[in-house]
Specification:
The protein is α+β, with helices and mostly antiparallel strands. Helices cover 37% and strands 29% of the residues. Bound molecules: 8-demethyl-8-dimethylamino-flavin-adenine-dinucleotide (RFL) and P-hydroxybenzoic acid (PHB).
Length: 395
């Protein structure tokens, strides 16, 4: 088989890149390790920046988010049992974020790809990359017991943090930056109305962090900070709801409607960046190149802007026979990535209880929260990072 671009991974970054390239007339094939059902079963992100929503509209799948998404003008911070609204929209001349699940984004892009008849190989085992330093790299994999190979001109590594692509950058050329946090998040999805349909709620309580989010007016997503050693089966629904109530302010706590969970999972929190994001004809995008702790809701949004930049660079490569875009890709992305890394680290540091911070660290955190909710300048900084940077940032 032969194509112009092989995309490794059919998560949101791989699917969106496939749609952007197809729109520009560039042939691409997606190779994904899992089944479509498995990919759609993963419950992850929920908050989209305007830039991400615009990209979905641009590739022709905006109908889902336009009808199913919920626009938010505000986030709320809770600490010392009191809730403080941060009017992010007002502080950023009207910018908003949209609650719309990553599962739905993936579903919309997957459906479009199937309808367009674009080639994708799911359940591909032992995916491997070859000759990435040459002008004719190849991707091989096993499917139904048969080894297959695709030759191409460029490869996009969109295969997430545990994917195979990043491992093909020689270790002496790859610099990794990492911070692992001493806690995780347990997340619950439930078909109950959101406790706060107008604002995403971030709570810093003595018992640890809590987050109230939503997927629709009848489906809610909640998270709690938990020890890394916790197992999902140690968290009955009852224990989860009781703990959430203890971490919210009294008004929200009384309003919370509980129900049976339809998904429950624990995720560790990590900050990670791999530099550079290109080696030869291989380009990394999304979680394959970087991870942010989910507190700033930036992971999926960064993945979307990476692939927007990558599609522009690839279009320039094929249509204008120019290397300028692909040569600049890594540097262009990394400027935006480090801004999001900083913000996600900062909000994580501000909102969680750190086991080893000591009384001094705790007092500093409280002072910063007091400062934040009383300062227009600091609230504006939070708001402009939360709604996201413009697409041309750092160009
Ligand atoms: P993905 O989604 O991990 O997709 C990678 C795909 O590659 C496949 N794959 C392979 N395919 C072929 N060969 C191999 N060897 C392969 N190895 C892996 C995988 O099966 C998979 O299908 O990466 P992508 O596309 O870069 O997307 C990134 C996002 O998924 C991620 O950044 C977000 O989910 C992060 N995130 C959030 N981001 C936001 O922007 N807003 C949020 O509100 C938000 N909340 C979250 C989050 C992540 C969370 N978790 C679970 C870490 C909340 C949570 C709890
Ligand atoms: C979510 O809805 O899953 C969500 C919302 C906000 C975050 C992280 C995750 O910061």
């Amino acid at each position: 088989m032969k194509t112009q671009v092989v995309i490794v991974g059919a998560g949101p970054s791989g699917l969106l890149l496939g749609a952007l390239l197809h729109k520009a007339g560039i042939d691409n094939i997606i190779v994904e390790r899992q089944t479509p059902e498995y990919v759609l079963g993963r419950i992850r992100a929920g908050i989209l920046e305007q830039v991400t929503v615009d990209l979905l509209r641009d590739v022709g799948v905006g109908a889902g988010v336009d009808t199913g998404g919920t626009i938010h003008h505000e986030i709320d911070l809770v600490f010392k049992n009191k809730r403080y609204p941060i009017p992010v929209s007002q502080l950023t001349s009207g910018k908003v974020v949209t609650a719309y699940g990553q599962t739905e984004v993936t579903h919309d892009l997957m459906t479009q790809r199937t309808e367009l008849g674009l080639p994708s190989f799911y359940s591909a085992d032992e995916v491997d990359l070859h000759d990435i330093e040459s002008k004719t790299p190849r991707v091989s994999f096993s499917k139904d017991g048969r080894r297959q190979e695709i030759s191409c001109e460029l490869i996009a590594g969109c295969d997430g943090f545990h994917g195979v692509s990043r491992k093909h950058i020689p270790t002496h050329l790859l610099k990794e930056f990492e911070r692992v946090y001493p806690f995780g998040w347990i997340g619950v999805l439930a078909d109950v109305p959101p406790v706060s349909p107008h604002a995403i709620v971030y709570a810093n309580s003595e018992r640890g962090f809590a987050l109230c989010s939503m997927r629709s007016m009848t489906r809610s997503r909640y998270y709690l900070q938990c020890p890394l050693s916790d197992k999902v089966d140690e968290w009955s629904d009852e224990r989860f709801w009781d703990e959430l109530k203890l971490r919210l302010d009294p008004e929200l706590s009384n309003k919370l409607i509980t129900g049976t969970s339809i998904e429950k999972s624990i995720a560790p929190l990590r900050s990670y960046v791999a530099e550079p994001m290109r080696h030869g004809q291989l380009f990394l995008a999304g979680d394959a190149a970087h991870i942010v702790p989910p507190t700033g809701a930036k992971g999926l949004n960064l993945a979307a802007t990476d692939v927007k930049y990558l599609s522009e660079a690839m279009i320039e490569f094929f249509n204008e026979k120019s290397n300028a875009g692909i040569d600049n890709y890594s540097e262009r992305c990394l400027k935006r990535i480090w801004r999001a890394e900083r913000f996600s680290w900062w909000l994580t540091s501000l909102m969680h209880r750190f086991p080893d911070t000591g009384e001094f660290g705790q007092k500093i955190q409280e002072a910063e929260l007091e400062y934040l909710v009383n300062s227009q300048a600091l609230s504006t900084s939070l708001a402009e990072n939360y709604v996201g940077l413009p697409l041309d940032f750092g160009s």
